Amino acid sequence: MITIRKCTLDDLHALQEISKETFYDTFKEQNSPDNMKAYLERAFNKEQLEKELTNEFSQFYFVYFDKEIAGYVKVNRDEAQSEIMGKDSLEIERIYIKKAFQRHGLGKVMLEKAIEVARDEGKKKIWLGVWEKNNNAIAFYHKMGFIQTGAHSFYMGDEEQTDYIMTKTLESNLD
């Protein structure tokens, strides 16, 4: 059974664990150990995650598969967005699934949750940044109706990388 639950500050430790695990598993092969270590320490330390969890313009959701945390999604609106996209946009900043739970449709479930949040808040579009070398994710987002609308820099330690900005317009409740 698949369920989704909004995270609270009480989830800080679990969020930190899954954030580090899923990010490392996703990108360890393409990045140096030093850059991975630097990024994980900067992005997922307790103080940083507490700041994000208590930001009124950000929300985290855990997805559970048979009562076990299998992944999470983080969405940002208004000034919490990592790029200036306007008040009619919602950003999916992170969407990650543990390796053991991939290929179970959880990515689609989390994406649908993000779209639901966007619609509930009256947003007209939803967007995300995806690493240009993450071909599986890019193909998934294309399949889900996202198109590439730009690019921005992402820093992995001291290495500048390029993320494609992909956007989906939310025209109606039929999307």
Mean pLDDT: 94
Query: How many distinct folded domains?
Result: 1
Rg value: 15 Å
Overall CATH architecture: 3-Layer(aba) Sandwich
Question: First CA to last CA: what distance?
Answer: 24 Å
Oligomer: single chain
Shape field? globular
Biggest sheet overview: 7 strands, mixed
- Distinct helical segment count: 5
CATH topology: Aminopeptidase
Strand order within the widest beta sheet: 1-2-3-4-5-7-6
Q: Which percent range describes the beta-strand content?
A: 25-35%
The topology string of helices and strands comes to EHHHEEEHEHEE
Looking at this structure, what is the CATH superfamily?
Gcn5-related N-acetyltransferase (GNAT)
CATH class call: Alpha Beta
Q: How much helicity do the residues have?
A: 25-40%
Secondary structure: number of strands: 7
Low-confidence stretches: none
Structural class comes to: alpha+beta
